[in-house]
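Appendix B. Raw example, untouched.
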Amino acid sequence: MTFASYLSLLRALMIIPIILLHGHHLIVFLLFLLAAITDWLDGYIARKTKTETNTGALLDLLADKILVSLSLIWIIFLYQDLYIFFPSLIIISRELIISSVRQYIVEKSEGTRIEVSFIGKSKTTLQLIAISMLFLVPLFEEKFYLLTISILWLSSFISIFSLYTYLLKWKSSL
C-alpha cells in the first residue's frame, strides 16, 4: 500500500471519532473537514509521486462512500428532519447504484474504467461542504440551517445528474 492509500484508509476510519464525539460540534466539524481534505490529498499525492494503483483507486472510492453515506445516516438519526432525510436518501441511493454498476462493469469487461468527471468531483465537493455544515447547524441560527439544507439539496440534484452521465458513459463503453 502507498502513502496515498493509507490516507484513503484514514478517511474511512475517521467516521468512528466523528460518530463517537457527537455533541462536540466544532470538533466533529474539524474531523470531518480533515477527512474531506484527505479526499483531495490522497489523489494529489498518488499523481505527484506516480504511485497510482488499482487498490488505491478502490480504497479512495470506498473511503468516500463510507464517509459520506455513514455521515448522512448518522445525521439523519440525529436530526430526524425530512429536509435532510430526502436529499440524503438520494445521495446514498446514488452511491449504492454507482457501486453496483461499477462491479457489473468490472465483471463484464476487464480493464474498462470510466474516469471521474468534473460533475462527479463537483458532486463530492458539494456533499462534503453540506455534510460539514450539517455538523455545525446546532451552533448557528436558522439562516445557516436554510443555507445548509439548500446546499444539501443541490448536491442531491447534482448526484442524480452525475448518475445519469455515468450511466450514459458506461452504456457507451460496453
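End of appendix B.
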